[in-house]
Amino acid sequence: MASNQLMIVISVLLLPLALHSIAAVENATNNTVEKNVDVVVEGMVYCQSCEHFGTWSLAGGEPISAAKVAVICKDHRDRVSFYKAFETDAHGYFYAQMW
Fold it and tell me: What is the 8-class DSSP label of residue 52?
């Protein structure tokens, strides 16, 4: 008789824990958040000064307006999987949003 009462007491004590766990799992599955990942390439296009020809220096370089910039992505077989062209603004700046 005492063991039956002990089992009932333990069951009553563990029941709220079980219900809380079920509610937590249900809330976790209902609150899925969709992630939206944007891939962006941005930069400046300059005309290098003739004084620094053949170097990485941009000293004296001028930004190029209306320059065409292309972004190409290739897969593991070196095939083009994405291509998109962009144009720089009056200050040589471009902002290329891929996806």
Answer: G
Asked if 68 and 84 touch (Cβ cutoff 8 Å), the reply is: no
- Contacts with 66 (C-beta within 8 Å, 6 or more apart), sequence order: 87, 88
**Domain layout of the chain by residue ranges:** 1-33, 40-97
> Which residues, 6 or more positions from 65, have their beta carbon under 8 angstroms from its beta carbon?
88, 89, 90, 91, 92
Instruction: Please give the model's pTM, rounded to 2 decimal places.
Output: 0.57
**Cα gap 40→86, rounded to integer Å:** 12
Given phi > 0 = left and psi -120 to 50 = alpha, else beta, which region is 60?
A: left
**DSSP strand pairing (40-44 vs 68-74):** unpaired
Per residue in 59-88, pLDDT (tens digit) is 999 999 999 999 999 999 999 999 999 999
* Dihedral sign for Cα atoms in the order 16, 22, 25, 31: negative
The Cβ of residue 88 has, within 10 Å, a number of other Cβ atoms equal to 19
